[in-house]
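Honest question from a wet-lab person: if I give you the sequences of every part of a complex, can you actually get the arrangement of the whole thing, not just the pieces? Trying it with mine:
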Amino acid sequence: MIALERDRTRTLLAIHGWAGVLLGLLLYVVIATGVVAVFADEIGDWASPIDPPAAAPFPAGLGLRIAELSRQIDPAYVDELNLYPRAGGRIEAFFHRHISVAGDAQPHAEGAVFELHPRTLEVLSRRDGIDDEVQARDASNALAAFLVDLHVSLHLPTPYGYLVTGVLGLAMMVAAVTGLLVHRHLLKELFTIRRFRDALLARRDRHVVAASWNLPFAFVLAFTGSYFSFAGSIGIPVMAMVAFGGNQTALIEAIVGTPPTENPAPAPMADLDRMLADAARRAGTAASFVSVSHYGRADAQVTVFTPPAAGELISHNLVYDGSSGAFVREKPGLGLVPSAGGALAAVMAPLHFGNFAGLLSKSVWFALGFASCYVTLTGLQLWTTRRAESPPWRAAARVVIGVGYGLPLALAATPIGYFAGRVAGVDRLEAPMLLALAAAAALTALLGTGRVPAERNASTLLRLTGAVLLSLPLLRWASGGPGWITASAHGLTTLMSMDAVLIVGAWLCWRAGRPRAAPTALATTGDAAAPLESAP
Amino acid sequence: MSAWSRGLLAGPVVFVTAATVMAGAALWLPAGPAQIDNLVLPIVLFPAIWAALFFYACLDRRLRRAWGLTLLLLLANAALIASRFVGTPAVRP
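Yes, you can. This is the full assembly:
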């Protein structure tokens, strides 16, 4: 039991409620899209599979292929090189140089991106330009990137999107902390769902139980999420201003680790394949990202990043001398030697993304994120329904239902825009995806403006979501993707698993969309009012 | 009136104060063995700095004291940052 004076409890309860009511709907959007974004890699593999799938993230022969490609581009771009696996296991090689863009303090990269087949290393596509530009024309990864961008910045311009999601993260943290403090009997409430004839009171108990179990996770997500949002939008620019006169590149170089002494003399690169094999042996797992600085120069440095090995939380960063191929050191993510700041920063990503133990940890994060969505939505419903005697709050209750059940429909509709755009040969797939999202939102709004009760609208939206989810495997196949027989024969397990998840999701939505009796209005009787006293 | 005052304090004033404390910490926090703690820790802990200030601003019964302490933190860190620019060219601490 947490003992707080009555007026402080009341203040905390008010903060808990208003933090949720003022920002709850946007918070719900960010959490729901975050739940989907946990499986961004798998969504990319499902939407743009490579048949047959990749055997390893970076196959043998990659070093020679990269050397060939370095001779095909403007020599000005042959300075930095990033290599990373993308949707379907494709390998992206981004040769670039750092540039400044007028009116933008953030450093940018300009160069050429090659998309390579993970088995044959054949060039599948090439895109030239500045980082934002080449990213916008990345067709194979566009669906996953669209959903991730919706989560991290709500598709608002930089840095405003990050600021908004950062504030939402702070609001979620406030809701989690106040939610913990206002519990009078925390342990008891973890296990209490009372039997009420009134559906609203039962819903209140379910909200409290789900929120109580979810508190630590909600706090971790909120803290790490607001850190990620504010680090780029406020933290780095402000720190660069205070410590480096506004030079963000200098700040990042200082934080990541001082680069080796400059030596611009040309020198052939050592065998990249051997460095990758050595890194895999040292880290106990294959590389997930490679960064080469000063490619083709005597001071070239190769940093190989690997995900955490089994039983570990933190990834490995292994540094090699680019011209000799000699192993130099294993460094922390930040700084050249271990530090408190580096250690704390290193746990932020695995705690937020839940990717430290593969599919298992991702599934747990997905489930806990889903519970956070439930808590946010039921909290909003309790708040608005409790005040439903007032017309503005009645309208707010309809909006909550519209956003709560319309968002899953809009997210499910997004791949329709993606597949349609790919079939039509659209260069930038963001537009058709936004169109699909907006169409679903408009349909939701149209349903919400009618005289139909909000609960029935929720049922309709759930059933529509089920229908759209069911159509996605068919659309994927119809737009040129492999069918189940081919996928099964070639071991495209992610694709088949995702199709199965969509079908099961469709069935669950259809079932959940069965019409039910609406909860009664609140606080209408003395009996009902008492248990709701501590409800949000 | 006091509700508005507290809202102003717990909202924009606390946010600006937290950002200023974060920036000022680059100058007073020890750099640590990797010479990065003073730059990294304030960024990572920004949500915690904000939360501490926010709850303090909401829960302190004496609103004037809450304003005073928050403004003191804001001005002390702002003065430290200003002295950095006025006294010496901005270089790494």
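Two things worth pointing out. The first helix of chain A runs from residue 6 to 37. DSSP finds 18 helices and eight strands in chain A.
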